[in-house]
From TrEMBL:
Transmembrane segments: none annotated. It comes from Arthrobacter hankyongi. This is Redox-sensing transcriptional repressor Rex. It comes from the Bacteria. Residues 1-20 are annotated as: Disordered. SUPFAM superfamilies: NAD(P)-binding Rossmann-fold domains, Winged helix' DNA-binding domain. Belongs to the transcriptional regulatory Rex family. Residues 30-69 bind DNA.
Amino acid sequence: MSVPDHPETASGTEESGRKIPPASLARLPIYLRALNAMLADSVERVSSEELAEAAGVKSAMLRKDLSYLGSFGTRGVGYDVQFVSQKISALLGLSQEWRVAIVGAGNLGRALARYSGFASRGFEVVAVFDADERIVGTRIGWLTVSNADNLEFELERTQTNMAVLAVPAAVAQQLCDRLVAAGVTSILSFAPVVLQVPPHVQVRKVDMGTELQILAYHAQRAQETESGSRARSAQ
């Protein structure tokens, strides 16, 4: 697919039926965060170069990513910040009401339940669960930790449509199965295990150990490059 140098300079309607590559999709929330920061500063228009710099990517990459949303804007004027923010929000499903349950109220689960960034991005944490009787009934902000035995009842009562699994690997699949059986089809898992789910269920796995290993790889490569440069300079 050919991409114009400045898709914001063309006018037209939203492209439909185009599948967005995973890498481009992963960058859209970054663009949205930058756009919303600009809106908070009363910025109405932004060039692709300025938005790319704010998002920490190359302008050509940003233009290609945004081309999947359609072509819009005016030559020499740039992107309408509010319009592009709304387009990305709609594409990401943020115009819907997302009610989130956190399963697992250990250190990680409690930290996630307290995270204020969820609400500002359109996600409301409506329930927290744990199986430990010492934790059940305790408070995390305005929420009371519910017994995991009552998972299905509470999911229905709170109309939960998204869940976060912050539990050990040994119980993750069992709890995942219960979530799916209760009608939850969007799950974010911090459990260090691959979960088996039906095709209609979306699971995103966050493996902090793997991410640290990738960081260590890049850090080692940087050290090797620096050592090589010093060696060549000394010759």
